[in-house]
Each structure stands twice: as C-alpha cells, then as structure tokens.
Specification:
116 residues; alpha+beta; 4 helices; 52% helix
Length: 116
Amino acid sequence: MVKSKNAESFLPLTHTTYYILLALIDPLHGYGIMQKVEEMSAGAVKLGPGTLYGALSKLEKQVIIVKIEELDMERKKCYQLTDLGKEIVQLEHKRLIELVSASEKYVKKIGGKGND
C-alpha cells in the first residue's frame, strides 16, 4: 500500500508519464495507449510494451490510475485516471503553461519564436 500523497508531490512529470495520463482521460487498453500517445505527440513519443507496462504498474501502485475490465473489448484490461490522476494532469498542465509563459520573452531575445 502506497502512502497517500498530495498531487503536487508527483510533479514534474516525465514526458512519457504526462502523455500516458493524457491518453487515459477516457478508459483505454495498453495498445490503445501506445497508439494515442504516438498520435498526441505527433510521433515524437513511441512507447514499447516494456516501458508502457512498467509505467502503468507504477502509476497503479501510486493510485494515479486504476485497472478496469471492459467486457465489450474481449476482456482486455483497461486503465483510467483516478481523481488523484486527474488532479495531477491538471496541475502539470498549469505548471507547463506557467513555465512557457514565464520564459517566452527571454526566448524571443535570443531569436526564438513566441506563441504570438
């Protein structure tokens, strides 16, 4: 049993973890998660089964996701976010927006483009 933690204690998330959690906004099975992450990241993040199932096991132990069974999907094991998982996704999204916003004028000074 994992000791309960507050959502902030899980931040910052890795790219992989963030994409996996985003993919689980709606319940999804492992292969579906791999496809959705690749689609959301425009091919930048491709998960292998070892990486994915290792991450899912860890997230399940941390009570960030839960395993459910979908009877209409040939009894494939699906995963979905818990309330803690939803809170973590929202906090990470907010953190990333604040990070980009705070750094934008500095990146423009060195020739980078902003979000204008």
